[in-house]
Amino acid sequence: MPLLYHGFAKHTEGAGGCLHFGFLRFLRRIAEAYWWGPRLPHMPPPPNWRNSWFDNRFNQGVKKLEDCLFKIIRCAERIDECGPALAAGPAAMAKMEPLAAFQRADRDVSIDLDSILSYLKITADCLADAVPNVYGRAGQSICRRNFGGMRAWFSKHGGAPYPEFRKILQARTGWFGLLSGIEGRPGLRTVITHDRGIYRLIIAGGGTNIDAVQPVLVGDENVISGNVIQDLSHSMRGLCEFLDASLLYVPGEVNRQVDPTYPVEHRLAPGATTFCDFATFRAEWLFPRLG
Questions:
Q1: Rounded to a whole number, what is the distance in angstroms from the first to the last CA of the chain?
Q2: Looking only at Cα atoms, what is the longest distance across the chain?
Q3: Cβ(269)–Cβ(25) under 8 Å?
Q4: Phi-psi region of 258 (alpha: psi -120 to 50; beta: other; left: phi over 0)
Q5: How far is it, in rounded angstroms, from Cα 162 to Cα 85?
Q6: Of 213, 229, 217, whose CA–CA distance to 85 is shortest?
Q7: Lowest mean pLDDT among 20-24, 29-33, 51-55, 242-246
Q8: DSSP class of residue 34?
Q9: 3-state DSSP helix/strand/coil % of the chain, to nearest 5
Q10: Is the pLDDT of residue 190 over 70?
Q11: Cα(33)–Cα(31) distance, rounded to whole angstroms?
C-alpha cells in the first residue's frame, strides 16, 4: 500500500529529506491539548471530550515513543556509517589500520542491530500505552500490558465499538510477529534476548556500503534470519503501514466522542506528519519511502 503519513520523503536536491511519522504527531497533539498544557493564548481550547481519560502512562508512552524513534534513527545511521569499513571485507585483512576499522564496525553493527530490535519492541509497547486512551473511559478495560496483550484483547473483545481497529490489528501486524514470533517461529528480538542469538556477517562482493553487508542471525546453531538488515527494513515498512491505517481511523474515533457543537475546523485531525528534517539522512536503508 502507498504510504501517506509514515516514511521518508527525499528532497528534490541533495541527500536530505523529511521523515514523516504521523501517528506520533497525532498523539502529541492529543497530549498537548488535553494533558500537557497550559494552552497557548492564541490557540483555541480543545473540543470538550466529556468522557476523556488520560493518565501519566499515556503521557510517558507518547514521550517514550518519540525517544525510541530518535534512537532507532541514530542506530540506523551508525550502521550505515559502518558500511564502507565492512564492505572492504577480506581486503581489510592485509593492513593493520583497515583491519582495526573492520573489527570496530563488526562490533558496532551487532550492538546497533540489537538496539533497533529492542527499540522497535518498545515502540510497539508504547503504542499499547496510548491507544486505549483514544476510546476515552471505555478504553480503561483494554489491555495495556504490552502490544501483544493489547492485540490479544482486541481479538477476544473486538466487537462493537471496536471492530475497525480489530481489523487493522488482524491485517497489519506481521511486522510485530517478525520481532516477537508468530505461529511457532521465534521472533528476532526473542532470539536475541532468550535464545543466545548472535550475528555472522556475510560480505557480498562488489558493494561498497551497507548494501554489501548481510548479517545472519543464528540462535542455538539454527539460522533465524538470513539477512537481519533486510528483515528490519520489512518490519519498519509493516509498522508504517499499520500506523498509516491507524491514522486513517483513530482521529475519527476521537472526534466521534467530542462535543458535536465544536467547530469542525478545530477538531483533531491527522494534520502535519513531519517528524524531523535531515540535511543528510543515513537511515534510508531502514525507512520506507513516502508515497
A1: 9
A2: 74
A3: no
A4: beta
A5: 50
A6: 213
A7: 29-33
A8: I
A9: 60, 10, 30
A10: yes
A11: 5
How many residues are given for the chain?
291
Written as one string, the DSSP assignment of 121-136 is HHHHHHHHHHGGGGGG
Of 86 and 69, more confident: 69
Report CA torsion sign: 93, 98, 99, 104: negative
Residue 227 burial class via C-beta count within 10 angstroms: exposed 0-12, middle 13-18, buried 19 and up: middle
Cβ-based neighbour number of residue 176 at 10 Å: 23
Among the listed residues 105, 109, 92, 83, the one whose alpha carbon sits nearest the alpha carbon of residue 212: 83
Distance in angstroms (rounded) separating the CA atoms of residues 101 and 82: 9
**Residue 51 binned pLDDT confidence (cut-offs 50, 70, 90):** confident
Return the residue matching grid coordinates 509497547: 125
Cell of 58: 499515556
Write b or e for each residue in 229-262: b if 16 or more Cβ atoms lie within 10 A of its Cβ, otherwise e.
bebbbebbbbbbbbbbbbbeebbebbbebbeeeb
CA–CA distance, 86 with 99 (Å, rounded to integer) = 10
- Mean pLDDT, to the nearest integer, of 201-223? 80
Question: Cβ of 45: how many Cβ atoms within 10 Å?
Answer: 9
Determine if the pTM surpasses 0.85. Answer: yes
Q: What is the DSSP letter of 14?
A: S
